[in-house]
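User: quick one, sequence for these tokens?
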């Protein structure tokens, strides 16, 4: 695992432990990389409740409660879907904070409106606060998009924990 990712994950685990909060993840384009990075840190069981890998729309709806209307209106890769995924992870876990990612890693699947490298990262907390960020990593290769998403998600979640 990349040294930056290891450091970010360790920092996240420490911050969550100090804040006495639990974390959940909801991942689409990263396929479990975020949960994997967090659980690579010794002692992460203190702060990590569970991870959802919801690659298909059906999984997003059944496991996280993402509305069919949201998916049909905005698409799986949208700020609205990322927000619903994050809140769904909270609703279906014992977590205080959840991070959700959905995007187009490539090499196919992009459109002019939603190009390869477009990713939405949502962070939700139990008090109802949510942040969703749009990232455009570009058509830099599937692995690079997934790694950039992993790093951005770890950073976003760390920033929101207090």
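Assistant:
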């Amino acid at each position: 695992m990349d040294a930056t990712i290891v450091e970010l994950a360790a920092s996240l685990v420490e911050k969550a432990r100090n804040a006495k909060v639990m974390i959940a993840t909801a991942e689409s384009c990263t396929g479990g990389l975020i949960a994997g990075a967090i659980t690579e840190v010794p002692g992460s069981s203190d702060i990590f409740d569970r991870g959802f890998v919801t690659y298909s729309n059906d999984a997003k709806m059944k496991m996280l409660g993402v509305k069919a209307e949201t998916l049909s209106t905005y698409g799986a890769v949208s700020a609205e879907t990322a927000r619903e995924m994050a809140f769904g992870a909270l609703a279906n876990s014992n977590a205080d904070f959840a991070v959700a990612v959905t995007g187009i890693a490539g090499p196919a699947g992009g459109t002019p409106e939603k190009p390869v490298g477009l990713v939405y990262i949502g962070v939700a907390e139990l008090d109802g606060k949510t942040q969703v960020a749009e990232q455009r990593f570009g058509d830099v290769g599937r692995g690079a998009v997934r790694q950039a998403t992993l790093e951005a998600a770890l950073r976003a979640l760390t920033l929101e924990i207090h």
